[in-house]
Amino acid sequence: MRSHYCGGINESHIDQEVTLCGWVHRRRDHGGVIFLDLRDRDGIAQVVFDPDTPESFAQADRVRSEYVIQIKGRVRHRPEGTENAHMATGQVEVLGYELELLNEAATPPFPLDEYSDVGEDVRLRYRYVDLRRPEMLNRLRFRSRVTSYLRNFLDGHGFMDVETPILTRATPEGARDYLVPSRTHAGSFFALPQSPQLFKQLLMVSGVDRYYQIAKCFRDEDLRADRQPEFTQVDVEASFVREEDIMNTMEQMIRNLFQDLLSVELPEFPRLPYAEAIRRFGSDKPDLRIPFELVDVADLVANVDFKVFSGPANNPKGRVAALRIPGGGELTRKQIDDYTNFVGIYGAKGLAYIKVNERAKGIEGLQSPIVKFLGDDVALAIMDRVEAQDGDIVFFGADKASVVDEALGALRVKIGHDLDRVEGDWAPCWVVDFPMFEEDDDGKLHALHHPFTAPVSAEELQSNPAGALSRAYDMVLNGTELGGGSIRIHEEQTQQVVFESLGIGKEEAREKFGFLLDALRFGCPPHGGLAFGLDRLVMLMTEAGSIRDVIPFPKTQNATCLMTDAPGEVDEKQLRELNIRLRKSAKDQQEGSN
Amino acid sequence: MRSHYCGGINESHIDQEVTLCGWVHRRRDHGGVIFLDLRDRDGIAQVVFDPDTPESFAQADRVRSEYVIQIKGRVRHRPEGTENAHMATGQVEVLGYELELLNEAATPPFPLDEYSDVGEDVRLRYRYVDLRRPEMLNRLRFRSRVTSYLRNFLDGHGFMDVETPILTRATPEGARDYLVPSRTHAGSFFALPQSPQLFKQLLMVSGVDRYYQIAKCFRDEDLRADRQPEFTQVDVEASFVREEDIMNTMEQMIRNLFQDLLSVELPEFPRLPYAEAIRRFGSDKPDLRIPFELVDVADLVANVDFKVFSGPANNPKGRVAALRIPGGGELTRKQIDDYTNFVGIYGAKGLAYIKVNERAKGIEGLQSPIVKFLGDDVALAIMDRVEAQDGDIVFFGADKASVVDEALGALRVKIGHDLDRVEGDWAPCWVVDFPMFEEDDDGKLHALHHPFTAPVSAEELQSNPAGALSRAYDMVLNGTELGGGSIRIHEEQTQQVVFESLGIGKEEAREKFGFLLDALRFGCPPHGGLAFGLDRLVMLMTEAGSIRDVIPFPKTQNATCLMTDAPGEVDEKQLRELNIRLRKSAKDQQEGSN
């Protein structure tokens, strides 16, 4: 129904007849002439109707914003002085002589002007209008280009696109499953996959050798800002590989992607051991664009009377660290109070600091509420250790190590942005040498990645599980984890040891993961892989403010779809077919738990 | 960990050192030498270990079938007379001098030999072993090539890959939904999509203009042979298009696919109106390779005493049709009895026939139990009408039209295969001019496609809905519906009329499809599309015997996964979080329905 897209009209079409279709973006009357800005996926073209063609002029006179029309006309230069250098089609216009009204449109619920500040709830309710805004449509298109690019890269590297089931078995990997009641098996439930992890490992047992899938994954968790109940993973697995093979291929893929789609040349990805990342940045996904680092000072404060510092300094699970902000001496009392509240979110009970006014003056040159508690020698030793300079501020964290890491790690990034000290646009890295497990407060071990991650040493896994390192690797970009993966366990015996370390007994392992254990016995090759979070990758690449801006039909943080009003109620009949019923009252719940 | 794939070794590698990884497909000892057939995704290579390299020979001596190994060796010609012309690598072998055992393997649950006849249940339980069989692995790989090909075609034609939600709202389109209880909204449920239909229409309202997605769809139906609870659709939609645009693009895509992946030149797709397809073939997905057609004879038998024929002949909803099988006179009594049972599946109460022994003899030349009921004139008139020839058999169907269509339509295909009368390999067509609705026995209208299909004429939709034609089109190949689509309704008013025709009142329409009706008001372009069943397409192209053979991890007809044992039971705690509980007894069910 069209000869060209609106956005594609240019001087090469001058004097040609064109047929365009689209939406009336704007309509102006000027000097007895009607100007329509006609919009489609590719851009906007100016179409002019003058009274010389009375029929189409009358039609054009009727149209309003967002009406859907088809026009026929001839391309011509815009009159001199009326060109628009900001528009791709700004040198030309179409003199319209036919206009067919394809559909009318009610006044949109909000203006499509990209600068208008519309509440997200309204945008989500009328998502189909919101997506019309060029910036949203361009994000969708960019996402499509990203998936297409990644697929072609992986196809070209011998990876096979294989689909794995959505209706599958609940295999607790950590998060809560979405469940689907079975009609044919009363009382049984499918689970939606948290990832295709086990299936892709089974494909390696099958000899698929190189697998990928752009896969929907599901987690029924309370949503944080950048989480969605369903999200998309670029999932990759390969056999007969070592860490280097996967990491090199994936790094190349991401570097090529940035180069070809954004013309960005990413640097080589440095490799940062987990322990170093935590020590220097308080985070296993450090934003390396921020030029501040944590420095341990526990040894210096182990013997001070100030219990706030000496307590954690003498606790094997404690940490005392300093964070020097060059030039941060100018921070006001108000700003420091705000940062104190900020670290409180992460459980820090306060935020000690020392301002460095003039180091040459020794202890006199420091300004701080805590120097008197530390003693002069210790304070000066800390200044030496952090290499403080005049005009700096040094913040402190002293608590359980996890609290200090999170609090100072987050503070580091926040101050970096607040003071505009972000260096460079893109700072990728690999984080490696993760521990197999983390220990909770009860001394129970949890898999840091997932229970199928191979250990560096099977011996150490046996003798000292809490200290054993894994063959996992995460790709981090600008403080966001883009993807994570590992070499997997390919031997039944090792898998059993990991299950035992996690407190999963033989019987439970058989019950939950019997098919995996079987598969490992029937000739499983060494294998490993990685999964990228596609939504986050696209969000970073498009500099979108939220993950919801790169997902066509996202859910709210309350896990609802405002447009379709999902989830919704269902008929009693349907519930009966599924052999379930609602617990309506507390009394019902009581009975149900018997 | 490898330098080459096993299947890639050939004479160009002679004297080169190679490292191969894979599974021991077969092991033979011959003249003091060990021969290992080493298998990977690409094929099989013969590796030879002789006692001159005692260490690797000892290793090779230990390996058994399906062990996973890595070998290093040198490629050489096979000794003269031992070449294997049936193998891609049959001219060469690898003289192995290092062997690393990567994993042992228990004896497989069934031999991987492709000729072994293993029950499907065992194959599904050990799917990861089943998929090792080269024919299965090749199907997975072919499927991957198909999706990659289709994606590249659609990318190249300006279609954008856009993801639509899996957790969505129950919008009854016909089949039963899979439901997902919401934890955060007690008593509410998400539904898994039966197709992305409404979302893709909303994307057209957004101006996406050309959309595609290879999308998972879900239907909780009792499964027929070629159905799965989750299946994959190649889903396409475009704006500002007419039937021709979609049909031409999609036909081109499928023709290119067959040409490039199978070297098959499909003929141009003839277009068959729905009424003609039913009349000639008894089916709206006719297998045009079968050279038999139904012929109406109701007018000839309207006045006979034989009520079995004259009843349906005089019933406006009845049909009397003949199916001539050239050369079918040789069918035995036993075969005819079997066909009588066969049409019984479709509700036919019998299968009348006339054998044509010698037409020149007139009525004497016919052999049939029914001629005496029809009378000579009618019998001979029928013979004229069907152009019967000596040696033919003519079958009859007389019943409600739907029964005759289904019974003779299926019989036509069955006999065509039984008598080896299938002509040609590939017979595609388009079926067009579908009615908007079909009427059930209660006179209630149901959408023949779905309620969003546009009518050919809005006037006829109003005045005579039961007779109105739609702008739908189905692509049919060899009697299988490959895909179906239509131009959609883009005006709210027309959509309301369709809902009314289906007995969906204003209130119910607003409640269930309010967001669609809203969207149609805000400037919806004319649009249409199509969806292909990917599983069936791949099944046809690979000549697989079942849809389950082209799905990596299929469910049984009972909707279970034998490998993971899904669906399974879940904790009481999970049910409580979801605000549901099981109905355990009839008594429970009684209470629940209050």
Automatic annotation (TrEMBL), chains A, B:
Its EC number is 6.1.1.23. The keyword Zinc does not apply. Belongs to the class-II aminoacyl-tRNA synthetase family. Type 1 subfamily. The record marks 30, 81 as: Important for tRNA non-discrimination. It comes from Halospina denitrificans. Coiled coil: none annotated. One of its GO terms (molecular function) is nucleic acid binding. Aspartyl-tRNA synthetase with relaxed tRNA specificity since it is able to aspartylate not only its cognate tRNA(Asp) but also tRNA(Asn). Reaction proceeds in two steps: L-aspartate is first activated by ATP to form Asp-AMP and then transferred to the acceptor end of tRNA(Asp/Asn). ATP binds at residues 219-221, 228, 481, 533-536. This is Aspartate--tRNA(Asp/Asn) ligase. GO terms for biological process: aspartyl-tRNA aminoacylation. The keyword Protein biosynthesis applies. GO terms for cellular component: cytoplasm. Homodimer. L-aspartate binds at residues 173, 219, 449, 488. It is found in: Cytoplasm. Pfam families: GAD, tRNA-synt_2, tRNA_anti-codon. Residues 197-200 are annotated as: Aspartate. Residues 140-552 form the Aminoacyl-transfer RNA synthetases class-II family profile domain.
